[in-house]
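Suppose a colleague, Dr. K., hands you the sequence of a protein chain of 312 amino acids and asks what its three-dimensional shape might be. Before reaching for any lab equipment, you can write down a predicted structure in token form. Begin with the sequence itself:
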Amino acid sequence: MAPHIATVVIPAAGRGTRLLPATKATPKELLSIYDRPALQFAMDEAIGLGAERIVIVTHQTKGAIRDYLTPDPEQIRDLGSRGKPLLAAALTDIEVPKWVEIVFVDQHTPLGLGHAILCAERQTLPGPFGVILPDDVIFGRPCLSEMAEHYSEGHMIAAMEVGPEETGSYGIFRFSTLPMGRNVAVTGIVEKPTPEQAPSRLAAVGRYILDPGIFSTLHHVGHGVGGEIQLTDAIARDAGTVALSAFRFSGTRYDCGTRDGLVDATLARQGVVRNQAAGIFAVAQGAVGRVPPAPIRSGRANAGTVIAFEQP
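The predicted structure, expressed as tokens, is then:
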């Protein structure tokens, strides 16, 4: 039986410099992907996994993230009383279930992903824990749940194939044997190698299941590239004593820390929502051949989609 993943850490302290000026006042995690902010997809994924605690590592200048995740029953009641039940339902839909605890931790200085994970050390529950990078939006089957089904021990990292010209943008896995199957044992990871130096074309993506021993390694790994504490350096150091695997997930990943990735994800999400709307409308109309109007609002896709239509 796979170990239970009780804690999910969501690093959200980055300043979003690649998306300036849009992120000058708005956290990048709250930029919209068609009908919902990027952070909401990470929250849905963590909740769908069954996490008991979600630790959000943020920065004191990003108070809007706390505001977004704070329930607002007064606004919900106000929308309902003003005859806007679908908008009220949309706000209700993003509320965190009562059985999930949200903990905020400040990362005062941006010292890398490894440092962000260290900031969450005292707040993680016993056992292995998950990490979701909200910049990496993955549509399709929830990635972390898919990984948890195949996880048994050690460190597991989501993986996807990239082109030779892209290896310099990712951590690239090293193998001792030919990688086969979805869950692949690996011997190490090389951070952002040139195409000539890359040991493979299988790249690390922003989903992790980590053994809690990673905290001790992070304390001793020291500062790496850019003077930051790199998570990949700690994982590489553990590779000799801790099982390390790369998991080929089935979904489609979008880098929403870039403008093009944000646009691509928005178009993909629009297609999903419109298809859902068309199906709901067809059922409601008895599938009599009427063309559904364009949807103007959608709710959580995995928890009862809420759709409002302009009336014909």
